[in-house]
Amino acid sequence: MNSYDSFLSPLGRSLHESVLRKMGQVIASRSGDLISFAAGYPDPAGFPWEEFRAIASELLSGKDGSVLQYGPTRGYRPLIESILGVLEKRGIKADLTEVMTTSGSQQGLDLTARVLIAPGDVVLVEVPTYTGAIAAFRNAQCRLVGVRQDADGINLEDLDASCMRERKAGSRVNLLYLVPNFQNPAGILLSLEKRQRLLEWAERRNMLIVEDDPYGELYFEDVATAAETRPLKADDRHGRVIYLSTFSKTLAPGFRVAWVAAPAPIVERFDTAKQSMDLMCGILDQRVVHQSIARGVLDRQAAALRKLYRDRRDVMEQTLRDQFGDRLSWIKPKGGFFLWAQLPDGFEDIALLEKAMEQGVLFVIGSAFCVDGSGHGRVRLSFSWPAPDRIREGAARLARAMMPTPVA
C-alpha cells in the first residue's frame, strides 16, 4: 500500500482522534455479547418516536419544497427563535445576532478552536475533561493545561495559579473550557458560589469561558431546584461566556442539532468559519427539532428523561456496591450520564480494560480524560444506555475482570 504521509500537511499529520470514537470502533468490530459502559448514548427507549413520526410525515408530505432544500449556514430561523425561548427558560437573554446552530456541540468546539485558538496558545481545562474538547483543541495545535477539580467543581485557586504561571512564562492564555453541569466524565455539579466567582475571575483576568452544557436539563431529585444548574451564561454581564448546548441528550443525537450562544462579534466569526465547513445547515433535521419544540415535545421529554436516567444511576450504584463493596468509590452524580469510579490500589485503567474486554464489558479509561498524564486509577462508567439487567450483568463481568489471576 502506498504511503501518503508526504502528502499530508503538518496539521494532517498531527490530527488527534477522539478516544470515544476509537471505543465505538471496538464495539463495532467485536462479535458476541458485549456490554458497553463506554458510550454516553441516550437510551433509544426514551426517544419520542410517535411524535417524531408524525412531524416527519407532515414535513415530508411534499407540500413545502423548502423542507429538503439547502438551509442557511447560521440555521433555520424559526428554530433559532425557538432556541431563544429555550435559553430564556435557562435564564439567558440573547437575540438573533448572538445565536447560531451547529452540527452537534462538537462542531461548536471545532469552531471555537478554529476562530479563537492559535498554534502555541494555552487553553485551560479541568482534570478530568471531555475527550471531544481535548481532540478539538489539540488539533488547533495549542497546549492544554489541566486544573484540579474539587467535589463542587473546578479548583479556583489552582485555576488562577495556572493562568498566571503560564502568562508569566510568556504564553497566550485566553480560554477556559469547562462543563459545569454533571461534568463529563466526573459527573460533578459546579456550585453556584463558584459559578459567580468564575465570572468575576474571567473579567479580572480578561479570559473567555467556553461553557459546554449538554446535561443541564437532566438533573435528578438530588438537585434541590433547577436553579442549581443555572448556566454561567445567565449571569454573564460582560460578554465573557461562549455557551454550547445541544438537543442530542433531550430529543435525539441523530439529528445533530446543537447551538452556540455568544457575543455577536464571535458568532459572526463562527458563522464565517462554518461556511467553509458545511456551507449550509441540515434543514430537515432542524425543522423536525423546531416542530418538537413548538409542539411541546421537548418540554414533555424532560421529566421522563430525568426519571429514566435517575433510575439507571440508582441501579448502577446499587449494583457496584453489591459487587465491589467499598473497593470502588465515586462522587454520586446528581444528573447526567456518568459515574467516575476510583479503582482499588494496584489496578490500572488500561490493563483492566484488556481484562474487562475478555469478560465482554467495556468502559472508558480514566487517563483518556486527563491532559496531565493522570487518571490511570479511574474509569468512566456510563449508565445511560444499558438496560438495568445489562447494567447488573456488566458489573458482574467487571468484577470478574478484577479478580486475582489464579496461580498455575
List keywords for this structure.
408 residues, Aspartate Aminotransferase, domain 1, Aspartate Aminotransferase, domain 2, eight-stranded mixed β-sheet, 13 helices, 13 strands, globular
Sketch the topology as an H/E string, one letter per element.
Answer: HHEHHEHEHEEHEHEEEHHHEHEEEH
CATH superfamily of the largest domain: Type I PLP-dependent aspartate aminotransferase-like (Major domain)
CATH class of the largest domain: Alpha Beta
Question: Biggest sheet: strands, sense, closure?
Answer: 8 strands, mixed
Widest sheet: strand ordering: 2-9-8-7-6-3-4-5
Tally of helical segments: 13
Number of domains: 2
Name the average pLDDT: 93
Compute the separation of the termini in Å: 44 Å
The helix content, as a percent range, equals: 40-55%
Proportion in β-strands: 5-15%
Number of strands: 13
Return the structural class: alpha/beta
| The CATH topology of the largest domain | Aspartate Aminotransferase, domain 2
CATH-defined architecture of the largest domain? 3-Layer(aba) Sandwich
Task: Name the overall outline.
Answer: globular
Low-confidence stretches: none
